[in-house]
Amino acid sequence: MKIKANIPDQDIIDCLVTALEGGSNYWYNMPDLTMLRSYKEALALSERVAMSALDGENIPVYDIEDEEELLGFISKANIEQGIKLFVEDGREFDPGMDADEADVLFQFIVMGEVVYG
Question: Rounded to a whole number, what is the distance in angstroms from the first to the last CA of the chain?
Answer without folding.
Answer: 31
